[in-house]
Amino acid sequence: MTNLVASPSVRAQAREQGIDLAALADKLGRSHLTHDDLKQPSGAGATEATSAIAATDDGARYWDIDHSQYGPVHSEPTSRFSQVAAQNLGAANRLIPQVTHHDRADVSALERFRAELKPEAKARGIKLTALAFQAKALAVALRAFPKFNASLSSDGKTLTFKEFVHIGIAVDTPHGLMVPAVRDVDRKGLWQIASEIADLAARAQERKVSPEEMGGASMTITNLGGIGGSAFTPIVNPPEVAILGITKAELTPVWDGNAFQPVPMLPLDLSYDHRVINGAEAARFMVHFVGLLADPRRMMI
Fold it and tell me: pTM for the whole thing?
């Protein structure tokens, strides 16, 4: 099968097990292979073994039923893109011990600064969204906490620290979730970051993002602020070790010592791989990140 897609760790495991990835891809009828696919029975009796596993698997028993016995239904095939995403997310959720740390950031100063920059943004023809600030702050935080900008080997014995800082931006599209990456965010200014985010998001909607633009992120941001919600638990996108979820800022009464003041507070949800990051490290990381959002001047230094 042409255009075979498999991560370096999957290819290494296949070599160790003596598995021909091309043959396995042809057998499964898919071009994207994960670690779970390497557990598929092979050789004589494979079909019978697979059927036996499916017959005894609780998930299969509950999913593969005739729903029409309960009322009218209709079916639609899922896209290849959605199938690959489902396999990757399922594998990530099974294999990674994930914990989610919840926090909030006072974005009063950030929003004032962004409002001051609106005339210049208009003159430049750039929409300066809060996401550009969030990506910049995350890049600065990743430089301060290198363990969050790392990847764990499949055997758990090696932690690879990245010298670059690329931020993945989850984009909701009609054909499924896409996560292109903005490169070298730590070395770019807000105007360039905002422009590249807008460009990637627009091209993602049209499926014009190249495979080279989709991989290699240090960490991913998934932002639901434009839709709604107050918190969620995003799934870590391997080989990354953490993912940042953001929802819509809300005016919250905050005591200033004399009275309650309305303050825009931004909900933040950091999911992380507990094999690499412990709770205290996650808390310190978020305290630093929250501080950058609260005082945007600090992310420019």
Answer: 0.78
Identify whether residues 136 and 64 lie together within a single domain: no
Mean pLDDT of 65-78: 90
**DSSP states of 92-161:** HHHHS-EEEEEEEEE-HHHHHHHHHTHHHHHHHT----HHHHHHHHHHHHHHH-GGGGEEE-TTS--EEE
**Is 101 noted as a catalytic residue in this protein?**
no
**145 and 108 inside one domain:** yes
Do 193 and 264 lie in one domain? The reply is yes
DSSP H/E element including 171: strand 171-173
Question: What's the domain range around 12?
Answer: 8-79
Residue 96 lies in a domain: yes
- Specify the number of domains making up the chain: 2
Residue-wise pLDDT tens digits, 215-250: 899 999 999 988 989 999 999 999 999 999 999 999
Active-site option among 35, 101, 102, 274 = 274
Q: How far is CA 120 from CA 66, 123, 170, 197, in A?
A: 59, 5, 27, 18
